[in-house]
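Example 5.3 — Tyr recombinase domain-containing protein
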Amino acid sequence: MPKVIKKLTRKEIEARPSVYATSSKPEVRNDGNGLALLVYPSGTRSWRSRYNLHNKRCDYIFAKYDEINEIQARERNQQHQALAKQNIDPKSYFNDNKFAKSLTFALIAQEWLEFREHEHRKDKEHIRRLNKHVLPKIGNISHHEITKQFLQDNILNPIIENGTYEEAKRTKTTIKQILDFAIDKYELIDSNVAEKLQVPKHKVKSFPAITEEHNLKDFLKAVWKYEENHPRSNLATNCLLKISILLALRPSEIRCLKWEQYNKEENILYAFASKVDVEHPIKLPRQAIEILDKLEQHKKNEYMFPTNQSKPQPLSEGACRTVLKKIGYKDIQTMHGLRAVARTILDEELGEETKYLESQLTHKNNDRSRGAYNRSKYLKPRARILQKWADYIDALRNDENVSRFKPVENIDAEKTLDNIIETVGVEKVIADLISNIGEDEILKNIFQHIDKDKLETYLNSKK
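Solution (predicted structure tokens):
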């Protein structure tokens, strides 16, 4: 019966070396299953695996006690024994993989970023997420030691707990892409541990927005008076905020506009609609043209709304947020919410057709049968709507009567017909009636209520 070797205790491991130990023949303290601790006179302790390979006894000194403890050493020794049974030399196997172990997540991330160097804008956000959430936690860890649970517990869950679900989702994507890069380039791991990371779905909250006309008036006054009250404020920021109100583009689409996207002769702005991935032509209203003319007089570089820095770059997302905060609308109105303002007022108050509004906002069309987004679709009606919207904004902030912009049915019901005609004009009333109930119905009602002799006399006088 083979002798049973008891596992070493911590006291036995750390005991002083034997007086008989020499540098060439250290003291051997057996731990069982081929594992032993070699203790040298200097006090250095090293772990050794002994195994049979091709009917020969082999020794492999694989780590110092200062580097790995007895529990880790036993796990490594089990790996060595398993490899030897498959006729694989553990020493060769682990030496060949030293390069793999030296590849920390930070080094691979740096290689990945260099590979993607041409995508500056996207990489800026990847770098921010790496520096903020990822590298402090796993930067110095070898990629093959990273586990799904560690990523979930230490990186994603803290982000999720802050309520920033989209940030968690994008951080997961960044990690996954880097590990995919490591798999493709080095073929060192078989599967991507980031693949099954969990980011729970959350209820989407609408961006805060003013959708009532009486509240919108005060907001518009505050925005247009800000530059007057703050003469030293940034011109580009003030113009960006006003243009955003007038055109209802996504903040990222308008903030990064370049002068080359503006056809001044035709007064058309070619914005890039990021959600549908196409160029989106916009016939500018008079007020927007005036703003761009003012901006062009102070043109600094290729960006319409540049920073004051020497390096050409667009204003940050926080520039207009700062203005909104200063005028008292921090939690009341957001930049993205300006699109909801235009959409709601144009629909509910000004009576514009939904299909034109959706086209101007470049919302995705979920009906596949209608085909891909048509970049020039509804250009003329959209131009009319934007001019009407800009005129309405001017009238509202200047305390003018805005009834002339509304269909008759949206005008205050308490007003008499005389009041309505006085406000919007008889031609407007008739045009809206024809639009809503049709010419035949109007003529039918006229003939029911009008003196036929007077009508005949009137028609004869016009011959």
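Remark. The CA atoms of residues 411 and 420 lie 8 Å apart.
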